[in-house]
Amino acid sequence: MNNSSFSAFLHVLRRFALPYKGYITGAVAANLFSAVLNVFSFMSIMPMLQMLFGMDTTAYHFMPWDGPEGIKDIAINNLYYYTTLLIGRFGRETALLLIGLFLVVTTFLKTFCYFMSSAVMVPLRTGIVRDIRIMVYDKVLHLPLAFVNDERKGDIIARMSGDVTEVENSITSSLDMLIKNPILIIFYFATLIFISWQLTLFTLLVIPVLGWIMGAIGRRLKADSLYAQSKWSETMSQLDEMLGGLRIIKAFIAEDKMLDRFCRVSNEFRDATNRVAIRQSSAHPVSEFLGTCIIVIVLWFGGTLIFSDQSPIDAPTFIFYMVILYSVINPLKDLSKASYAIPKGLASMERIDKILDAENPIKEPEKPVSLSNLGEGAFHGIEYHDVHFSYSNNPQEVIHGVDLIVPKGQTIALVGQSGSGKSTLVDLLPRYHDVTGGEILIDGINVKDLRLHDLRSLIGNVNQEAILFNDTFFNNIAFGVPEATMEQVVEAAKIANAHDFILQSEHGYDTYVGDRGCRLSGGQRQRISIARAILKNPPILILDEATSALDTESERLVQEALERLMKSRTTIAIAHRLSTIKNADLICVLHEGRIVERGTHEELLSINGYYKHLNDMQQL
Asked: Using an 8 Å Cβ cutoff, are 239 and 233 in contact?
């Protein structure tokens, strides 16, 4: 893992692991105890076994711990001294049994500490993953519609599922190794230096070769992982398109075409995953081979020291040294695995950050203005003043200098050909997008000076596509009014001409409507949408082609519901069917982002312009 990857990894930890620092502290403490017990058990066993089996017949005497001999010599001498006392008092057989029991106890404590170090990391791992997933969900909720429209839904889903899971599998799973292994390595190397600094110096000259080779193998892993995750996103996008367009696919007998597309991207994803997996799976065998090479080299060098006349280390101590050295190889292998896993997870984190770091241009005002008195006193309605707008990814304007006043309690209709800017113009009012020029006023106050919550609570929407959730009739109608009672929901449904068909359903208001309301007809979905707006009881109403996709009977029922909803409300209605807005107080005709005509139905017909042309085409 290079410096940039390590810095990125630390940045991820600072962002997401700080709330769980108590778990990290617990893991560090448990690993410290485990390392101490592991080294101490090996260190104490070796001299005991030497004396038990007659390999050392020296007569040892107790040395004061503050003596001039040095702490290393004193510790070794006193360990041997207490061993001779144990053998002299209980005999060799009993002493061997006591040594075995000692090893069992220290091993139990060591493994218990190891278990605790892993157990306390579980809440940290799952907590970080949960936090990331919630942060992404929250960010997508609050980003403007333009971001969601520019991104593929399947790609967003892939980042919340596959990429977050990869972060869990790669980064958070490596935390345990990155906490435990450095502690073990430090303790083991301290022990090796304590035993023989000459051998340890030689070992430190050889081991960096292991890290360099492992780094050379894994340098492309992050780039390969990014490519693989992009192919996973493309797979999810095609799945989302297939589920959303299944009716059209079947109608055009395009099953084979869609299957070929999915097979192609699935094969590309498989090939990319194979490259990542093969590169990652090489970590263990390469580290195993290099570790064995290091052991053999150190064994050769240590043997030459022992064979010399002035050897700084004896054979039993060298055996103990090799045991500790072999013990340090496993933590080094685990670190090499982490150096492979972390770049793979960082690639996924990079894709997640494209959402988390996305700038939201819809800003809350620093000093918001209260608009609690809307509709009371001198309310002047809504005013579009020299409004211009262009999308961020396209500098060409789609709204050009629109001026429009919507007086309180009146209905203003917007008509025009598709692409003339009608929906964009009304989307600027609740600040789904922000104007790039001019201003929009409500009661004389710029909408940018209002809290988004306050602004959008004033506005009710009924769209061409009635968006329902896979929930009950009751919860769909009460969606924006959580404190609504059953009586209020029923009353809203009656006004919207929805009460009768709701009662005829299996469980009445507790019946689930299916995914996006798939169990209902278009007219029924629209009436539920109208009931939702009625219950919200907003002073401003936006109707976006609310009846354009309905049959005649459904249109009549929906139109009746809309007329009840529009009473005493300030309404902006977008319409394709001119018959539905003949009674509007003012009709504005949009063409290429400009209002080219305005007036009542009769006035516009007499002008013999765009509106007359649209009207004549619908009469054919």
From this structure: no
- The answer to whether residue 209 sits within a structural domain is yes
Residues 436-488 pLDDT 10s:
999 999 888 899 988 888 888 888 888 777 788 888 999 988 887 888 889 98
Q: Are residues 308 and 422 in the same domain?
A: no
Identify the CATH number of the domain in which residue 17 sits: 1.20.1560.10
Four-residue CA torsion sign, 557, 525, 238, 418:
positive
Per-residue b or e along 277-286, where b marks 16 or more CB atoms closer than 10 Å to that residue's CB: eebbeebeeb
Looking at the fold, whether 311 and 402 belong to one and the same domain comes out as no
Lowest mean pLDDT among 172-186, 368-382, 522-536: 368-382
CATH number for the domain spanning 550: value is: 3.40.50.300
The residues with which 17 forms a beta bridge, in sequence order, are none
Identify any residues that bridge with 587 across adjacent strands, giving them in sequence order: 413, 599
Helix, strand, coil percentages for the chain (3-state, nearest 5): 65, 10, 25
Domain count, the chain: 2
In a shared domain, residues 485 and 344: no
Residues 292 and 391 in one domain: no
Question: Strands 437-442 and 411-415: what pairing?
Answer: unpaired
Contacts of 562 (CB under 8 A, 6+ apart): 462, 530, 543, 546, 547
Sheet holding 382-389, edge to edge: 399-406, 382-389, 437-442, 445-446
Average pLDDT over residues 15-37: 84
DSSP secondary-structure letter at 168? I
pLDDT (tens digit, 9 = 90+) per residue, 370-385?
Answer: 766 554 444 468 999 9
pTM: 0.72
For residue 306, the model assigns a pLDDT of 72
Percent of residues, the chain, with pLDDT higher than 90: 6
CA torsion, ordered 149, 357, 121, 126, to nearest 10 deg: -20
Full domain range(s) for residue 260: 3-356
In a domain, 339, yes or no: yes
Confidence of residue 49 (pLDDT cuts 50, 70, 90): low
Mode of pairing for the β-strands spanning 586-591 and 594-599: antiparallel
Q: How far apart are CA 160 and CA 168, in angstroms?
A: 12
Q: Which of 356, 372, 401 is the last residue of a domain?
A: 356
Q: Please, what sign has the CA dihedral across residues 23, 26, 32, 34?
A: negative
DSSP 107-165: HHHHHHHHHHHHHTHHHHHHHHHHHHHHHHHHHHHHS-HHHHHHS-HHHHHHIIIIIHH
In this prediction, residue 404 carries a pLDDT of 92
Domain edge (last residue) among 309, 340, 356: 356
Residue 200 in domain: yes
